[in-house]
Amino acid sequence: MRLPFLDRRPCVAVLRLSGVVGPRLPGLGDAGLSAAALAPVLEAAFKAPRLAGVVLAINSPGGSPVQSSLIAARIRRLAEARGVPVVACIEDTGASGGYWIACAADEIVCDASSILGSIGVISQGFGFTEALDKLGIERRLVTAGEQKAFLDPFRPAEAAQQERLRDLLAGLHEEFKHWVRSRRGAHLRGEEAELFSGRFWTGREAVALGLADRLGELHAEIHGRFGEDVRLRWFNMRRPRWPWRWFAAAVGAGLEILEERAARSRLGL
Questions:
Q1: Is the pLDDT assigned to residue 251 strictly greater than 60?
Q2: Mean pLDDT of 139-159
Q3: Residue whose C-alpha is closest to residue 121's, from 180, 187, 75
Q4: CA-CA distance, 153 to 157, in Å (whole number)?
């Protein structure tokens, strides 16, 4: 048995990034993937002694483009500061925001049946324009600023507001495309119109299109790249410890499960 402080083998830090990407919700634990919740975990992983590389075990259908961008930017900043390679290993899903984060790695590895891509932006909601009338409820809304009630679900959709939303989504889509080009541009094969259409592919198809580098599995990839005699250190997001936070954590986990199922359903999973 080797004592940790006497173990001189090179270290590979493995970060498990699983779930929907979204902002941290106060009082609901660390459900989902957010820049705030991941910050201390990323810092600890990249500060591991005798660090040879970092592996991201990704299983995410996506979520917030802002949080995806913040997480990916922090990974790149830490990787460049430490001068270590980063490898993303896609498990079931690395789509949309999950793929955005994967592109922070120097190389992307996936299973033949993984789902990758979905390089696009979506906004969805519901309209309740007749619900209040049927329930006999009067809604009172006062605003200062003609666009303050933008896309109010209790008012009929307005063409101008729909067009404004499409412009916003198009701008976010351009940011996503720019990031993928900057990280994967030399590897991409195929027409951008298709690659950036929001379509997703299996891992085998993604490799052929240059969205991923090769097929593989996390442990085989680690030992094949960093050697058999490496020490793995796993880093996971911190969860609430105190009993009074367990209920909030359970609620947060339940909401995350519902959101993740909805996100994965768009991918046919």
A1: no
A2: 77
A3: 180
A4: 8
pTM: 0.82
User: Do residues 21 and 97 lie in contact, with contact meaning Cβ atoms separated by under 8 Å?
Assistant: yes
Structure tokens at 232: 């793995």
Q: Is 97 left (phi over 0), alpha (psi -120 to 50) or beta?
A: alpha
pLDDT tens-digit profile of 186-204?
999 989 999 999 999 999 9
Half-sphere exposure of 200 (CA within 13 A, CB side): 26
**Residue 4 burial (C-beta neighbours within 10 Å; 0-12, 13-18, 19+):** exposed
Tell me how crowded residue 47 is: count the other CB atoms within 10 A of its CB: 11
Mean pLDDT, residues 52-80: 96
Identify whether the C-beta of residue 252 lies closer than 8 Å to the C-beta of residue 246: no
Q: Which domains does the chain have, with CATH numbers?
A: 4-121+184-265 (3.90.226.10)
Q: How far is CA 105 from CA 89, 184, 265, in A?
A: 9, 10, 26
> How are beta strands 107-110 and 214-215 bridged, if at all?
parallel
